[in-house]
Amino acid sequence: MRQRSLTIVTSLLTAGALTLTACGSRDSKGSDSGETTVVIGVDAPLTGQNSATGLGIQYGVQIAVDDANKNNTVPGVTFEVKALDDKAIPANGQQNATSLVSDKKVLGVIGPLNSGVATSMQQVFDTAGLVQISPSNTAPELTQGKNWQTSKKRPYKTYFRTATTDALQGGFAADYTYKTLKKRKVYVVDDKQTYGAGLAKLFTANFTKAGGKVVGTDHVNTGDKDFATLVTKVKNSGADLLYYGGQYDESQILTKQLKAAGAKIPLFGGDGMFSDTYIKTAGASAEGDLVTSVGVPVTTLPAAKDFVATYKEKKYPGDYGTYGGYAYDAATAIIKAVGKVVKDGKVPSDARRQIVDAVQNSDFDGVSGHVSFDQYGDTTNKQLTVYQVKSGKWEPVKSGTYNPAS
Amino acid sequence: MNTLPQQLANGLFLGSMYGLIAIGYTMVYGIVQLINFAHGEIFMTGGFGALTVYLYLPDGTSMWIALPAMLLGGVLVATLFALGAERFAYRPLRGAPVLAPLITAIGLSLALQQAVFNWYPDAKSARVFPQLPFGPYHLGSLRIQSGDVFLIIVAPLCMTALALFVRGSRTGRAMQATAQDPDTAQLMGIDTNRMIATAFAIGGVFAGIAGVAFGLKYGSVQYDMGFQAGLHAFTAAVLGGIGNVYGAMLGGLVLGLAEAMATAYIANIPGMEQLGGQGWASVWAFVLLILVLLLRPQGLLGERVADRA
Questions:
Q1: Which of A221, A253, A262 lies nearest to residue B218, judging by beta carbons?
Q2: Positive or negative CA dihedral for A126, A132, A133, A139?
């Protein structure tokens, strides 16, 4: 009995494998005649932690690809999106990177969302010479190397980003806190991740340099739900602002418990918190909270209006406001690069290498502003905006650039 | 301002939550020596069950009417899942090597998470849970939130009811008999399958109540909320002595207090700045667990386990 079922299982598996092979060969034959398919990979957290902003990236890319196909931006080429879920876990990101690299149709990748995940992927893409553009990574190390404060050195030439770095974001936030809000005593909390801890560190450095005082620090774990003890400490410290380095998942609960504990002080965070989900979950507690985010408000740019309208019309899940526009621009940069390299649907054998160079020379106006990259792969768009929750909505309160020297 | 009373209260509320969930682990372990790793997910389904009831109630229903209905819904859903797990996942494996049901439990846990994630509307990120429309209350320097008021009333009530049931009722005594020796209990005319199902059901009821309490306390429910809560509750059950219902509650309270104290005060000890705070709370909780298990391997209120080998 056991023997026989084993035989059946084996034969089924063999048949399945054969069918799969058959599918594979038919696919490649199909692409020889007529349109060439170019795949743009996406890696972001699509489920669980950070998924609201992660889905915003996936569908931002989707809209860029749909637009390119509709307008026939690259003649003879049909673009497709291949979105993989990294669950905000570095090991998953690396696995996804490996699988994207091995798919010959993938000529560029958008993502990941988390800086910590990016560090695990850069090497894989660099070895394969495949271009990667993150719409959201802000850790300075990713483009300027480990010793970015003293000697900048680009570690991977395949890595680009359309987001500005924490070096600017942390400074901009510290500046706003000290000069505009006139807060002098701040409590700093982070989530111990590459992004959150980095942002908190840079905020602290710039805030103390400006003359402010950090009255306490603490760290939380991602996935934590109970911050009662922490908020009691914050309240007791006499801080007049809580700065949080991390994502919306924790901070939306943190702000709620903070206000419930009777501490009437705003929570200030980075772009990882700039999400509608934050307001939805925190409710009235979110009122008055602040974030810094990259670029000028997406809604103020005329080019972005179509993007936002399409996103809403298609009823895509996730929050487009955070990184959707940057994901759209990142995807457009790759599409334009493909347009320079792939002529008449013919993909040259070193297409990936050529596309890296073409992306480096990107120069166009996207939905989030002007898109071009400096010698480190960082965006030249150094605009930052402070948003504040007013009547249950993120409202831009100040846009500008941060000059570290001032 | 002295924060000690507030921090103790914070720990107590957190601990009551752990204790409610821990009951499920301890009841099931006490009767069939199975660590039901899917219990965290049963707790999660309780939260979503209550949320579903709330969403079906007409808008503007007073929380005084909605809350009992939500409790009922949460308890019902969690109990159904607990009974279903027992009937279809664990009962067929009774008598199988101990690892088989354990692996099944882990599989069931993942399956339940994914099921809610895929099929519950908008459950891919946190869903907002309704809040009680009163509080916070001030008690001297203490500040107590409405969700905590619910916990502090419900948790002792449930514990007392359970203690009376297990000690006083016929079914309770039959359960104890089954836990002590299932074969003899069966020979004495006890339907052991029913007793085991009852243990799962009680765990489900507590998990359902805990699910509602969680939603009220933190303002949202999420498909993966059972994992961390379950892990802590399981730790609480072991700390208190797994298999002992009083131990589960005590273990929960001790664990909650330990986490609160660790978060609040360890960083103030000179030289320990780096080892304190929220990020280290779980580490200290486990240090405590290890210490307790070194000195009392059976847990705080645990019973002898020699004849279980």
A1: A253
A2: negative
Choose among A224, A229, A261: nearest Cβ to B260: A229
pLDDT at position A214, please?
95
Closest residue by Cα to residue B14 from B268, B278, B276, B269: B278
Band (pLDDT 50/70/90 cuts) for residue B309 is very low
**pLDDT (tens digit per residue) in A299-355:** 777 788 889 899 999 999 888 888 888 999 999 999 999 999 998 888 998 999 999
CATH number for the domain spanning B102: value is 1.10.3470
* CA-angle at A189, arms to A184 and A194, nearest 5°: 125
- What is the complex's ipTM, to 2 decimals? 0.81
If one counts the domains in chain A, the total is 2
pLDDT value, residue A31? 42
Are A43 and A79 within one domain? yes
Are residues A198 and A53 part of one domain?
no
Question: CB neighbours (10 Å) of residue A137?
Answer: 30
- Of B198, B193, B168, give the one whose Cα is nearest residue B182: B193
> For residues A231 and B264, what is the distance between their CA atoms, to the nearest angstrom?
10
- The percentage of residues in chain A with a pLDDT greater than 70, rounded to a whole number, is 90
Angle between helices A194-210 and A115-128 (to 10 degrees): 120
In a domain, A396, yes or no: yes
Flag if B7 and A219 touch (Cβ within 8 Å). Answer: no
Flag whether residue A19 sits within 8 Å of chain B, measured between CB atoms. no
Domain holding B102, by residue range, is 4-308
Q: What is the reported pLDDT for A11? A: 57
**Residue A283 falls inside a structural domain:** yes
Least confident of A26-30, A41-45, B220-224, B291-295: A26-30
Q: Does residue A3 fall inside a structural domain?
A: no
The C-alpha R_g of chain A, in whole angstroms, comes to: 23
Contact: B143, A220; criterion CB under 8 Å: no
Parent domain of A213? 166-294+385-400
Q: Between A55, A230, A261, which is nearest B263 by CB?
A: A230
Average pLDDT value for residue range A222-234: 90
Question: What's the whole-number average pLDDT of chain A?
Answer: 87
